[in-house]
Description:
Layout: H1 5-11, E1 14-19, H2 32-52, E2 57-64, H3 79-89, H4 98-109, E3 120-123
Parallel strand pairs: 1-2, 2-3
Amino acid sequence: MRAVIPVMEAAGRGAILNVSSEAGLRGNASGNAYTASKHGIIGVTKSAAFMYGPKGIRVNSVAPGGVATGIPMPPNMSEYGSARLAPFQQAIPTVATAEHLAASITFLLSDDAVNINGAILASDGGWSVQ
């Protein structure tokens, strides 16, 4: 954001999209460090939306649920954490593809989202309603 905000301020408009996670919306989606980092992204998104909205800059975030990334799970997860999260991980209704997330992201960056600022869009296939 540091790199683009000055350019957007000069233009009098802009849109920034941060990527959080379902873990940023609740406490039972992942481990402590990951969850804390995703809550942090939501805080930065809301703060920047407040600070730069009057300058025509919209700042929003997408919060995906499970995503088919091909990245393996870390091998050093705690046994307790894995066991505690297992029932919730099984409840993920769908796993998103890159195209699913791209649709949410391009919407929030487009002029169709002109009146959306400081929003966190759950793009999670309904995981957040369970």
